[in-house]
Write a structure and sequence with these properties.
- This protein has about 90 residues and is an all-alpha fold.
- The chain contains four helices and no strands.
- It has a domain of about 40 residues.
Amino acid sequence: MDNYLKCMKFTENKNAPNCRILAKQYLKCRMDNQLMEQSDWESLGLVNLPGEKHVDIGKKYNQDKDKQSSSSSSTNNTTTTTTTTK
């Protein structure tokens, strides 16, 4: 909690992503220790915050990539290879 408050003071009470991550950690601790009701992150507005390790964008990226590949190969009869790095 202290880290969150320091973060808010440092950012002049702006809704900074790094402060939101600290808030999420604090709320998770409270839920884990049964100090508050279990809630899903979406209802708390804390889903897929920047800097989190488990941001699931791969599924959407692959769906978009598949759509793009099928539309370009059907119109051009060519195959395009795309290389991405993470």
